[in-house]
Amino acid sequence: MKQYANMQEMLQEICEKYADQTAVLSAVHGEKVKVTYRQLYEAVMAKAEDHRENVRECFGLCGEMTPSWILHAFAEVIRGKRVVMIDPMLSAEETKAVIQETGVDFFYCDNREKSQLVRSAVDRNLAKVQRREPADDAIEGGGEFVFYSSGTTGEEKPCVLSQQAILDRVYYGNEMIPVHEGETCLAMIPFSHIFGFVCNLLWPLVNGVCVAIGRGLRFMAEDTDLFRPQFMCLVPAQLQYLLSKGALNPELRHILVGAESAPNELFAATKARNIAVYYGYGLTEAASGIAMSDGKGDPHALWICPGTEVSISEEGEILVSCGGLMDGYWHDPEGTREKIRDGVLHTGDTGYLDSKGHLFVEGRMTDVLELAGGKRVNCTGAERELAQLVETQVALTLRDGKLTLVAIAGDGLLPEIEEKVKAYNEKNDQGIRIEKVVLRDGPFPRTVSGKIRRYAL
Fold first, then answer.
1. What is the spatial distance between Cα 144 and Cα 177, in angstroms, rounded to a whole number?
2. Please, what's the largest Cα pairwise distance for the chain?
3. Please, are residues 141 and 99 in contact by the beta-carbon 8 Å criterion?
4. How far is CA 384 from the centre of its chain?
5. pLDDT surpassing 50 at residue 94
6. In this predicted model, what pLDDT tens digit does every residue of 263-310 receive, in sequence order?
7. I need a labelling partner for 223 at 20 to 30 A (CA). Which of 19, 253, 376, 389 fits?
């Protein structure tokens, strides 16, 4: 595989190489609709040329995954515009906030009501462009993508990623899992998330793999039967759901799991169906992939992706250097300097390297809660144990300085859960006792990739 410099070069070469093979496959009213590599390239270039003289500078892309979404993403970045990837699950008010923050002056969305509700924000940004008002602390240039970070421990941040940075990760990640020309990849992770964009779209395309676009949560189990994929990228919750429904089709050869921690039982259940399952670790700030398991041994023993250097700080933080680093956070030079120092990304994750060079990721540094007296609690490990103990979903947080367990359960279960937590406390150090139990009747707030937004608990 060639290391492409930009999206236009990539599309042109894969068009010449795969021409009349199916690049994108979607389902409309139950009928499959095919787009060949040649058709995709020609449509993208025609759209880019149509908009070549457009004064607008920032293209906001929102909506469900469709061939039209893919067309606009490629066309706008090729014509030198900044393309902001907006999560379609955001409310109109949340979408408007993203538009205001990133300077979106042209908005594409398949939801007409949302488009109308955010139009005033788009028009205000366009007026600034027409007046040529300078933007303070802007990252200059054109043809970049803006993806939002996962936001597990704080507000999501807009990361500016060059085409070259993203294609760097595609090139080196390609060496980690064998996918083959003519196969089908079922895309279930939104393309607005860097994991979905790199692993569900770009990676398959550069290998001549057909990208079958999933129809959303409602049709997950049906889509595996409809498209019969050989390869999928999933978050753990998606894989767990498909396993529970018996919906892993017999043609499946490989599954890449990422975006959050996953239990060993999930990997074992998948391997029992003769499917190679890989576990990947990456960040939006690094254009996705940093390390990945080999699909054979311990799924949490990760090999560093080629073209990537990883070290561990004295505090146990994972530090990364690679060609896929973001240009920076949009309009946040201070946040950028804090995250990337001397060309090294400070991930905010903790982990260690073993004697064989495997990377083991332990959790977020901010998932380690510091209590009064300096005691530290690793939330990830404790939550796993507590969830088994109280038999429901749980999360730890600090409320008024007290270590608090938030559990999804009805009010009538509070006494029973408190008794189990009491037993948990008795076998733990006095300094890390859970002091309060709070029940929640709805799901935890999560990011698009399924991670808990701990700061919002």
1. 27
2. 69
3. no
4. 22
5. yes
6. 788 899 999 999 999 999 999 999 988 999 988 888 889 999 999 999
7. 19
Element (H, E) at 321: strand 317-322
Residue 28 CB contacts under 8 Å (≥ 6 apart), including other chains: none
Place of tokens 């064998």: 178
| 264 in Cβ contact with 219 (< 8 Å) | no
**Contact (CB, 8 A) for 452 and 152:** yes
Cβ 287 vs Cβ 165: under 8 Å: yes
Residue 7 amino acid letter:
M
Phi and psi, residue 237, nearest 5°: -65, -35
Q: Burial letters for 246-275: b for 16+ Cβ neighbours within 10 Å, e otherwise?
A: eebbeebbbbbbbbbbbeeebbebbeeeeb
Whose tokens are 């080999």? That residue is: 294
The first and second tokens of residue 166, run together, are 């993203």
CA angle 427, 428, 430 (to 5 degrees): 120
pLDDT tens, residue by residue, 364-384? 766 677 776 667 777 777 888
Q: What is the DSSP string of 189-218?
A: S-TTSHHIIIIIIIHHHHTT-EEEEP--GG
pLDDT on residue 152 = 45
Which residue from 197, 199, 200 is spatially nearest to 172, judged by alpha carbons?
A: 199
Pick 446 or 88 by higher pLDDT. Answer: 88
* Cα angle for residues 259, 264, 266 (degrees, 5° grid): 70
Instruction: Check if the beta carbon of residue 360 is closer than 8 Å to that of residue 351.
Output: yes
3-state SS assignment for residue 236 = helix
In angstroms and rounded to an integer, the radius of gyration of the C-alpha atoms of the chain is 23
Residues 136-174 have pLDDT tens digits of 444 445 689 999 987 544 468 999 999 999 999 998 887
Q: What is the pTM of this model?
A: 0.81
